[in-house]
Input
Amino acid sequence: MDAIYNAKNRETYFEEMNRYNQTRLAHSVKFRTSCRLLRGHSGTEDAFNKKGDDVRPSSPVKLQLEINVLDIIKLTDVAIYPKVGAQAMGSLEAHVNGFRYETSSAQPHIDVAYENIKCAFFRAGDDKIPPLLHLHLHNQIILGTEETNNINFRSEATLVGQIDEGNKDLQDFVDKVTNMWDSKPILTNLFESSEYEFHGFFPTKVRAVFALTSRFLVELVETNPIVVKLDEIEIVNLAQLRPNEIDMTVVFGDFSRDVLEINSIPLESLAEIKHCLNYANVKYYQNERDLNWNEEVKKFRDSPQKFIMEGGWESLNLEAGDASDCFYWEEYGGLDEEDW
Output
């Protein structure tokens, strides 16, 4: 490893370590994908990939209310999305084994059991996005006439002073709920705040704000929020097809899922996106390839042996020589099978 440590500066050192890790990941992904396809699995719901901590009972849990009113942690003046009937402001309360949202209107209250929360996010508001708290659920619940596993609570503040107050109220609520976990073990899902945000466009030309956390890729504001666990991802392709912009394509380990496309990301976001993905051990490729990714994934799913025999993802020439020429690769001659 001396060649890496002798890199001219810290930035070069981390870039080389990043490229070395990505080279290791390329072999790991190739091995994992080949094993799954050879076993006849096109998705992730098999014993090779099954995550036991994602399994939750589908039967609804009855909310147990706090007996002492003073023990109820409450967030007031928030709206719920998706909307339920005529939109009205309401309050979100933390009880013994779940949250309750209710308004002064005739709409019934909405209960969410803690054990049904897969993950939760909060984001401070700014001049474009209101303060919000997002719950992503294991099992869908009914809001009005719609089934969803994404619930969004937002302060409708618009003025700067109101946004600041909304941010403070939201932060206080999250802090108090988090402190409950010491005494109420049923709360097992930590809130995550955004670690790195970047702008991009959906293929529908809708502009949105995306965030990479240590475990998730999310977009929480648009009509159909996106919450992707990073360990559900097979690879990410980062293609520069236009000056000063990159397009991100997320290919899932479940080949039956459509890929996720995020277009026109500012080029200055590329380095941090790569850092976040590498930190989470997600294999990415950087190139200038313009591919129909859903078609390519369908080919792999329909002809798994051909995909494997042609070298897996390497058959698409995605690497562009980036990882194979890092210092470690040159000095030590690549990776042995035991590194897979």
